[in-house]
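pipeline: protein-struct stage 2 | run 1193 | RHS repeat-associated core domain-containing protein
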Amino acid sequence: MLTDQNQNVVWKGEYTPFGEVTEVVNTIGQDIRFPGQYHDRETGYYYNYYRDYDPTLGRYLQSDPVGLGGGINTYGYANQNPVIYVDPYGLDAEAAIALALSDSPVPGPMDVAAGIGIAALALMPGDSARKDAQHARYHKICDQPPPPPSGDPCIDAERKRDQAQLCYDLRKNWSDKWDESGSSAWNKHQGQLQQVKQRIINAVEDIKRNCKQECF
């Protein structure tokens, strides 16, 4: 539900467990859905970074880019349990137990972060296998070569930024969850994160130089 400065309801939706929305009040448009998802009104699908999600089916339209590392069902969303799990990038379902406690129909970034933090403290079945799978996933993204040139320096810079940002987020999430703070592994990963952060900064500078800024 969204309200204006006078606390009048300007948008309200009713959700099914897998994210299909019936808009009850639609004075203004509101296209944010599950964490990491944006509603494409032309198709009815939800853009979920690496894949498109169909809320009427509760599944992705494309197979998991990381293959079977995400599970046998490569089209499934959030381990088929969106009440407990989220998938911000369309790559990996992260435990988010605290989402069930949120009073918001569309949990925000802080809800997700809190949920992941709580889940990290819990003893999850198959932790070792999950750790290895998540490690392989972030390496699959981070070890990719830069996107091939498109002929447009603006598009190239934006793709480099997006690739580096996704690498940073996945690597940091893994380190925060599995590394012991101050350990040699943690220190190594902090150094790697700084390198990726510099790639993001460089890409942003390229965007400033090569992309036309829109005027509002």
